[in-house]
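Please predict the structure of the following assembly.
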Amino acid sequence: MSISNKEYDKMTKRASPNSPVLLDCFKAFLVGGAICCFAEGLSQAFKKTTMTQDQSKTLVLTILIAITALLTGLGVFDKIAKHAGAGTMVPITGFANSIVSPAMEFKSEGFVLGTCAQMFHIAGPVIVFGCGSAAVYGFIIYLIQILR
Amino acid sequence: MATRQGNATILLETKPEIISNAAVVGKKEGEGPLGKYFDEIFFDGTLGLDSWEKAESKFLKTAAEKSIAKANLRASQIQAIFSGDLLNQCTGSAFGIRGLGIPFAGLFSACSTMSLSLLLASMAIETGAFSYTAAATCSHFCSAEKQFRQPLEYGGQRTPTAQWTVTGAGAAILGKRQHESNPYIDAVRIGKIVDYDITDANNMGAAMAPAACDTICGFLKDTGTSPSDYDMILTGDLGSVGSELLCQLTEKEHGINIRSVHRDCGLMIFDLEKQDVHAGGSGCGCSASVLCSYILNSMRKNKFRKILFAATGALMSPVSSLQGESIPGISHAVRIIKD
């Protein structure tokens, strides 16, 4: 064929529609913002109780995870996320969904090698980088404290 | 005796006929523009079974059984079935066929499997050794998503160029030419692997269009025909992006304009706007269910007389994509005629 790979790449880019970035950003901002406002509302409400700040923070996260798990199980979360994009993916809701969805999907391969083994197949890298960076920063803080 | 024309086109002298055809699909496909043409629509994607994979096999088995029944035959009279799918080791087909007792040739040619299975089934009849053969393929949206993309309930966004794997299966029974009223296959072409270095697994149409161009234009040249000789040049699942690229490529590379007769099963099976399938349908079951319902049934009613069917496939795997390999495309062609 006479068309080079580069030329075909150009043809492909011209023929392929782009994602509506501005609209996607706007929807992500609205939904992501709403989730954060909801979490902040909970946090403020818990402040009025006898809970410590650490306890209330943990409870807010637990509630968001529980709601996400429930919505994922009911098959609703992906329909919201389809529009919200980063709005639902960046908060802890995205992380919870990335664990619950493969756990459900691989149920047919058994409890241990299906659900449990596959549960972290999307979230795995997040946990690796999270734990890895926590260890690195922890070590740096430890060093600073020694040097003081 | 079959003869080779040009480099890769085979002319079939005995013109094996398509005795019967059947297609079964899922709910979304049934709600699409071709809904009324399918033999059966299953509204429960699991068919009451406990995995998507089992359901996919059941789709294939149902399509095969229906086509055998429509041909007034028994499974024991089919001497070979050529069938494939997208699942690892072609389990969709193998598990669907295993109870039928039909000699089984498992095929893999990604989404172009329906044209490869028809091609081989017709060549088997051409040898004279077979009286009845079957060609079938299937795919299932949920099992394909699970194997190639993310879990169903994962909250991600699809790109505008992504396609929607069709849940469905199609099967056709072929035999020696006996009845004037049946469509027949008179020429086939095994496609070349064509790779234009596309690596975006969400733009399969672009990866497959060059292979479709090579096969279609090669077939037209070898047979000395032009697009105007056909009622339809039918590709499998190029979708909106791949279809546009195919039409541009055939013009630029071979000076052949196929726009007026080109149709794509991936654009026919869904309503792109209303059904939110982005660039169109895809999967083995896409071309299989469209061909084995609307297309062949319309040919039987003399609506179409001459069709060049060239299903298209992307020969990649989740591993090859992760390793950064480009996506090789393939397309096999079958010419179907109704006198």
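DSSP finds ten helices and 15 strands in chain B. The radius of gyration of chain B is 18 Å.
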